[in-house]
Design brief:
The protein folds into two domains: 73 residues, Winged helix-like DNA-binding domain superfamily/Winged helix DNA-binding domain (Arc Repressor Mutant, subunit A, Orthogonal Bundle), CATH 1.10.10; 140 residues, Beta-Lactamase (2-Layer Sandwich). β6 and β7 form a beta hairpin. By secondary structure, the chain is α+β, with helices and mostly antiparallel strands. The protein has ten helices and seven strands. A five-stranded antiparallel β-sheet has the order 4-3-7-6-5, with helices on both faces. A two-stranded antiparallel sheet has the order 1-2. α2 crosses α3 and α6 packs antiparallel against α10.
Length: 225
C-alpha cells in the first residue's frame, strides 16, 4: 500500500489507543502489509520524532504518540456525528426521568457505553460522576500517586469544574493533556446541556476520541428530546 508519514502516524495512534504499548516498525509492516521495509518506517519515525509527534519511551522499543499528536488528531480527525443506533436508543431510554435523575441516568449509560468516567454538573454546585473504576483500570493509572492525584480532584469536583462553568462554548470541548483540569494523563470531553448543565467524559489521553465524541453528541440529543 502507498503510505505517507501522516498515515503512518495515524496507524501508530490507532495501535497505541488499542494496546497502550509502544508500536514497533516491524510490527506495523507485518500487521498492515505496508510493502515497505522496517528501516523505512524507522526513518519516518525519526521524522515524526523531530516534529514532536512521536517519542521513544525505551531505547530499544517502539514509538508512542505525544500529546501534540493527539491534539492534531482531535483537531483534524474528529467528525461531529452521532453514535450508532443501539447506543442512541439506550441514551434516549436513559433520559426518561425527571431533570436531576435523568442526568445521572444519562451519565451511567454513557460510562457503560464508552468505558469512560462520566461527569455531570448541574446549574448550581451539585456534581455527580460514575465509572471511576473504568478509568483507574487503565494502564496509565497503575502508579499509585496518579490514582491519589486524580481521586483528590474528583473529590473536589465542584472546584475542579468551576473554571469550566465560566467558559462559553457552544460545541463539545476537548481538553487534552496539560489542558485537562484532571491532570496531564487525562482528557475531558465536555458539553453544555439544554439547561446550562455540563456533561462530560473523562478518560486517559489515550482514548478513542471519535467514539467518545459521538456518544456525547447523542447524549445531548437525548437530553434535548
Amino acid at each position: 500500500m502507498d503510505l505517507t508519514p501522516e498515515q503512518l502516524l495515524r496507524l501508530v495512534l490507532q495501535e497505541y489507543i488499542e494496546t497502550a504499548a509502544p508500536v514497533g516498525s516491524q510490527y506495523l509492516v507485518e500487521r498492515y502489509t505496508l510493502g515497505i521495509s522496517p528501516a523505512t518506517v524507522r526513518n519516518w519515525f525519526a521524522e515524526l520524532d523531530e516534529l514532536g509527534l512521536l517519542e521513544q519511551p525505551h531505547t530499544s522499543g517502539g514509538r508512542i504518540p505525544t500529546e501534540a499528536a493527539f491534539k492534531q488528531y482531535v483537531e483534524q480527525g474528529l467528525v461531529p456525528k452521532p453514535a450508532g443506533k443501539r447506543s442512541r436508543e439506550r441514551l434516549v431510554a436513559a433520559a426518561r426521568y425527571s431533570h436531576d435523575e435523568r442526568l445521572k441516568s444519562i451519565a451511567r449509560e454513557l460510562s457503560e457505553l464508552t468505558g469512560l468516567t462520566a461527569i455531570v454538573a448541574y446549574e448550581g454546585t451539585d456534581t455527580y460522576y460514575t465509572g471511576l473504576s473504568k478509568l483507574l483500570a487503565q494502564p496509565e493509572f497503575r502508579d499509585w500517586q496518579s490514582v491519589v492525584h486524580l481521586t483528590k480532584l474528583l473529590d473536589q469536583l465542584d472546584q475542579t469544574l468551576a473554571g469550566l462553568r465560566r467558559i462559553r462554548f457552544d460545541e463539545p470541548l476537548v481538553l487534552l493533556g496539560k489542558d485537562c483540569p484532571f491532570g496531564p494523563d487525562c482528557s475531558l470531553l465536555v458539553a453544555r446541556g439544554p439547561h446550562g448543565e455540563l456533561i462530560g467524559l473523562l478518560g486517559p489521553i489515550r482514548m478513542e476520541y471519535q467514539e467518545a465524541m459521538s456518544h456525547l453528541i447523542s447524549a445531548l440529543d437525548a437530553l434535548n428530546s
